[in-house]
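Appendix B, record 7
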Amino acid sequence: MSLTRICAFSKCLYRRTLFQRCIQRVTNVDYCHLCFAIRNGPVRRISGQTPQAIMSRRHFSPLFPKAEEAETRVLKQTQLLDVLEARIQQLQSDGILDVHHTKVEVLKAAPSGKASPSGKGPKSTSQGKGDTVKPKQATTTTKGAAKSKSSKSQPSPWLEKLSKERTNKINNEQHSQQKPRKGVKEKPQKGAKEKPMTKPQVGPTNPGRSNQTISSPSAAPRTSPSVVKSEGSSKLADKVRSAEASSSAPHKASKRKSRAQAPGGAAAQSKPSPALQARPQEIAEAEELEGRLSQQISELTASATPDRLLMERERGDCGDIQFAIRSYMEACVFSGEVERANRFLLSQHRILSRRKQLDIGMYNTSMRIWAKKGSLHHIGRIFHLVEEAGLRPNLGSYCAVLECMGRTTSSSHVVKRGLKQMEEEGLSLDDLFSQFVFRQDERDMVLKAVRSVRPKYQPVSNDLSATDCHSPLVRDFYLQREGHRYPKLDFTREELQERFRQQLSMEQGCTVTIDSVEISKPLTENMTKMREHLEGLRSQWKKTLLQALREKKMLLANTKSRDYKLNLYPYLCLLHDRDYVDIMIQSVSNLHLSGESLKILAKDLGNKVHTKCSIHQKGQDHMADKLANIYSGYIDLLAKDTKEYDVLPREQWLKLEAADVSGPTLQGEDPQWPYIVTVELGTCLVDLMVKNLKINSDILNPAYERKLIPILYHMYTFRSTRQVGFIKPHPILIQIQQEATETRLTFESYVMPMLCPPLPWISAKYGAYLLSPTKLMRTVDGATQHEQLLEQSQSLHPVLDSLNQLGSCTWQVNKPLLDIIISIFNHRGSDKLGIPPPLSEAPRVPHLNPHDPTFTAVEKAHMKKEVVKAKKKVTEMHGLRMDALYKLSIANHVRDKKFWFPHNMDFRGRTYPCPPHFNHLGSDVTRALLVFGEGKPLGPRGLDWLKIHLVNLTGLKKRSSLYGRLEYANSILEDILDSADDPLNGKKWWMNADEPWQALGCCMEIANAVRSPDPAQFISHLPVQQDGSCNGLQHYAALGRDVIGATSVNLMPSDVPQDVYSGVAQQVEEFRVRDAEKGLKIAQILEGFISRKVVKQTVMTVVYGVTRYGGRLQIEKRLKEIDEFPKEYVWDASHYLVRQVFSGLKEMFTGTREIQDWLTDSARLISKSGRTVEWVTPLGLPVIQPYHRTRTKVLKHDMQDINLQISHDVKERPDTVKQKNAFPPNFIHSLDSTHMMLTSLNCYSAGLTFVSVHDCFWTHAVTVDTMNKVCREQFVALHSQPILQELSNFLLRKYCSGIPGDGTNKKHLEYRRLMLMLATVPQTGDFDLQRVKESTFFFS
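Structure tokens (predicted):
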């Protein structure tokens, strides 16, 4: 680069960019050949037009070639042409008439030796006859001299072989024509028309690329990006495809149809297989239906809107490579290694095989670097590289240009030419300001440059707050807002402002250290000693790791690898060295007693670095200041001391952001790293820890010999049949940590509840936390197809608004209940109450000496099993204990605060709180600890709902009416009050409930209410839950309008609730009695053992796709829990019962089974066609199943090779088994999430507090009746839509929009079967959906 700058070679750039008229053109003769060659190394023009261009080629040599070498080269080129011509003729003889090839001639070396050494002579001016091409299609043609006479006179062995094959093929065809064709109706063959001969058009084949010519076959791999395989390893077909790549693009699509059009094609006249002959009836039915469906599909496709018809995003084979390159360059820029980023880009551009891996965004990254430095000259050079790469500048490219002009106050003439060039590219300034993601002061600089020539220009922003009401389910919600009463928070504006500052400070710190609730023993001398040991060791470890990290970075920075090699150096420079050290030290403290697999530990470390880097980058871009300004206006919508608004949180935020346009763009995408980079970075940090963290061996026992030993060691263990790398702590470290009993815990800031209302989700990339990166949709690590669908979708507003409503709920901790739970936790725990005991209660691991001769081999084997069993128990107890410790410690930390849980969703639309440890989706303990932050009076029916809720939590009276449950609660009111007053020493009635801690919390709330002066005015914070009755079967019954099924799952009104589990158990018992009378032994043994509990789990999960194998395991587990059942018959009994359960369900839910089978078969045929299953929920959320065949990617490291199992690679074929098994449950999950979202939106507009745990809805006691009404109305509205028919229409236009091939081949028949299957929607019954509104026990 230094020579390049010194020579100032930019003056000789032949510019076709916006700067071409601003720089004086000079000839290349003004420069020495050395500087010219250096300048043109990374940006050479392979045009073959001038001698100077020939000198700039990589393999240019001033020496003249020898005559023998020229003759050998010509002979090889001629042989290659013979191969290509023979293959083309063979394809045409097979009926593929649309084979185009570029005319390639061999340039014979001149006798004087002055020709180009590789046949790359100057461009020929003669126009010879070209090959046939379609009209309006440009073909790049290579000119040259005539072929060598010696090579032309000799017959090619390939042509001779082709002639023999053609003769044999004609004989075979004549023989086959004499045989009658069976089972397939013949169609008349149309003769192929000859295409007119046209001259090849020489011109640019890519936008922005100048005319290029290919002088010889040997030059083709350098000039045509499509040729990437070497001649030695590629097949003939690959070479033909390379030659055809320069011809018209549409001919690729026509290959599929050419066999049917060829009069003598082999496909048209070959004898069909017996499998095809055996299906005449199926073919006839399909053909009869095909005409009708084809017309229907064409109409659907023509009327489909872009968001409903999910267009597949094209991803090339180098998509993963592009992701890695983009991430690497961004890491270089953020870490300050801008020269490394520029060198890397040039090294990739220099080699044509790597240039195709670059996209315009990578060039833009380099442009932004130079824009910050105000170097318009260097940006112009990058524009030249973009032109050479055949890419078109986009908004980001011109944004960098204008930013640079704004920083350097360029002349108005230059700015005008830049804007003119931008408009000529079809790009507008308004799109730039509304769509581009600005950082720091980029927007201000761009606007400064624009206003230097257009002083009155004002950017026009898109109205992103406008909601496109595609779905009729939410049209009234958005358009008719007169009666809406959006709830306010019980906080003043100043209080919310202070909470925002606290949350921002916490996220900027990245970690939070809190007090632990574990106080097992009073402070002793040994504890103090162990804590001093730990403190000294950590201080020493930090110094050691800091030095080791710096040495590692120095080694990576000075590595002698080429510039195009990716390494971890920039990723190790993103943070301060001490930040990496703190992350490593913290991971040692949190390491499990039994260790952790290397892959999981590495991924965790890499993710922590990525999160911290993302937060630091937002700070560097000055986003916190702008965020504070917008949030200050946003809280006016939420605070109780401000005016009422008729807009949703998402709409209000977008309006505020549109009004404050200066500075960085808040909706910028967080930096994304490839999954393999995250794991590799984490592995590097683990390697540093294992090699450098050591401890004295005599630290606990001075009698031992003093030597430094590692505190972590790398070992291998087996998980099933796989060998897994493991990182285990040394027993000395474990002993020190256990005896120290530290009272402080450190968490990442994003695992804590938020101290202020979350940011509203306004797009698929922005919402939830203030600075911490959060995904809208939870996906498998590395999967990107979900994000692509979300970006393409234009109807996400209802989904986003529902998530915002769920996140707006204020929470607080039930402090009296928390104190009771902590006291039991610190005592000895309680398995019965779901509080894990400490490790002191764990069984002791027996000592086993394998060499002890006193034990027999059988006894040693038995003892070995006992040791394994005891170790497993200890590990499980430790995991459960730490999980409970985290939950209780976080709850104790926020016991005096009010907080919020931001929400996101999985790929089916099911919603989840973002904080992983402490949330309302947890166990009975965590649910009991959480109550609403805002209380409401009970009202006239609130106390009754509290009592009914308590009975529901006990698990009693499941078959009783609501009045019966209320009467039961009143009859045990004394026990309820006793439980509230003396929970640990009284009658302990609450301990026998199914959900004991929630029951105790409800007892306390009832006690406080009945003892208040006016129970109707008592302010209640306790959530009252309404749970769906086997919600999956409810959706199936509604889809199929199945009267019997609807009655079984309480869609029909009744006086008492119907229990589907008891109904199935009764059906199975009838089957058992019948078989027992026939003498079946296992049926006789099962007498008296078939109960609701035995079959409940299988019935509950069969709707979500459980197989017979999984159902058998569930029943086997239930039978083992029955002490009286003979254990030797568990296997046979579980096999028998699972068959009967499935048979009973099939009889009770006929419509359900038909819909399940239709969904399963449809997914099977779709995945067999090579596509993954996609659909759109009735609320507009796009869903795709990310199940592909698993491939293994090996991450090589000095520590060990890590096998990454990747099952979401879109380049792999779909996993048919997973696709078909998962489609029914995933589709039902998407429906129950849609029902929940509709309920949340309408509850929000009614002013209710609403949260959900999937199909369990929570609200205040006073608003239960309103929520129940909304819940039933939205269920009826949802299933009043033609859901199955809309699904069928979507699948048809998604997967059946084109007919592949001839009507007699296998692929076409599979297409017809798929079309027939997708079009055959299951018939529905006569159930009246309106009856759901009257059903008391639909949700109860």
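Remarks on this record: The chain has a mean pLDDT of 78. The CA atoms of residues 231 and 1066 lie 72 Å apart.
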